[in-house]
Amino acid sequence: MKSFFLIALLIIAGLSAAAQLEKQVEKKFDSQTYGEVKHMGVYIASIERVTKDSDTLYLLQFRNSQYTYNVDIQQIRFTVEDGLLDTLYNMLSAAIDSPKDSKISFKLGTEELEVTTLKVIGLKGINITMLRNRAYFGLNRKQLDRLFNRKAN
Fold first, then answer.
1. Residues 115 and 103 sit within 8 Å (Cβ to Cβ)
2. What is the DSSP annotation of the chain?
3. In the CATH hierarchy, which fold is given to the domain comprising 30-147?
4. How do the domains of the chain map onto residue ranges?
């Protein structure tokens, strides 16, 4: 009889814990993809806008190009103040037009980034590197436009 009450008590405690967990899971964030870049179906990078209540956070996520076969998705969190996305786009766009091997460094959120200009087979592009762990990804002009949800020129 004692074991019956013990089992019943455990079941009730388990159901109560599951109900509390469900209530916490219900508090979801509203997420919207701002721009996304893929190359031949392979994910390169995206910018996502995440909103909860009145707080808005942007996530720059990218596949770390250090690894060919391993999928290592990195994430940079930042908030957007007056025109930051436009400023970031303009800065990266200007970097593509800079001479080969030009470098600029800046901070986005809490991450220090370095942008290096590339020119491969006559095509211009940039590598964006997180200095903390040397994770990086590359973009050309069309991919940059797609990432920032701009019409390609």
1. yes
2. -HHHHHHHHHHHHHHHHHHHHHHHHT-PPEEEEEEEEEETTEEEEEEEEEEETTEEEEEEEEE-TT-SSS--EEEEEE---TTHHHHHHHHHHHHHHSPTT-EEEEEETTEEEEEEEEEETTEEEEEEEETTT--EEEEEHHHHHHHTT----
3. Secreted effector protein pipB2 fold (3.30.2450)
4. 30-147
Output the tens digit of pLDDT for each of the chain's 153 residues. Answer: 555 554 554 455 554 544 444 445 455 678 888 889 988 888 889 999 888 877 888 899 998 887 777 778 889 998 888 788 899 999 999 999 999 999 999 999 999 999 999 988 888 999 999 999 999 899 999 999 999 998 755
